[in-house]
Amino acid sequence: MNIIKLCENDIITLRKNHPCEKKAYDFKVLMVGSDIKIQCVKCLRTVIVPRIKLEKNIRLINSEPPHKSAFGTDGK
Ligand SMILES: [Zn+2]
Q1: CA of 74 to the centre of ligand 1 (A)
Q2: Per-residue model confidence as pLDDT tens digits over 46-60
Q3: What are the extents of the domains in the chain?
Q4: % pLDDT > 70, the chain
Q5: 5 pLDDT band (50/70/90 cuts)?
Q6: How far is the CA of 16 from the centre of ligand 1 (A)?
Q7: Cα(72) to centroid of ligand 1, in Å?
Q8: pLDDT of 66
Q9: What DSSP line would sit under 13-61, residue for residue?
Q10: What is the whole-number distance in angstroms between the Cα of residue 18 and the centre of ligand 1?
Q11: How far is CA 60 from CA 8, 63, 67, 70, 71, in A?
Q12: CA of 21 to the centre of ligand 1 (A)
């Protein structure tokens, strides 16, 4: 069983495109709960999708790399 971990600000690629554009497969995750609020990165419109429905539609999750954390920085 696969558990899909979604976090806010993740960019997800869906199997189905947003109707605004043929290549609008990328959405930004705005809110995570039993329903997921996503925003089309092309037209910036938001959609609320039930989690179960969305998970079936996800092709890729592009989490932001944690490069912001200041680990191992030698401040000399
Ligand atoms: Zn769109």
Answers
A1: 43
A2: 999 999 999 999 999
A3: 11-62
A4: 80
A5: confident
A6: 11
A7: 40
A8: 62
A9: EESSPPTT-TT--EEEEEE-SSEEEEEETTT--EEEEEHHHHHHHEEEE
A10: 5
A11: 15, 9, 20, 27, 27
A12: 6
Element (H, E) at 11: strand 11-14
CA dist 68 to 6, 11, 45, 55, 62, Å?
Answer: 19, 17, 28, 28, 16
51-62-24 Cα angle (round to 5)? 75
Q: Look at residue 73 and tell me whether its pLDDT is greater than 90.
A: no
What backbone torsions phi and psi does residue 73 show, to the nearest 5 degrees? -80, 130
- pTM for the predicted model, two decimal places: 0.79
For residue 34, how far is its CA from the centre of ligand 1 (angstroms)? 22
Tell me the CA–centroid distance for residue 68 and ligand 1, in Å: 29
Residues bordering ligand 1, an ion, CB closer than 5 Å: 18, 20, 24, 40, 42-43
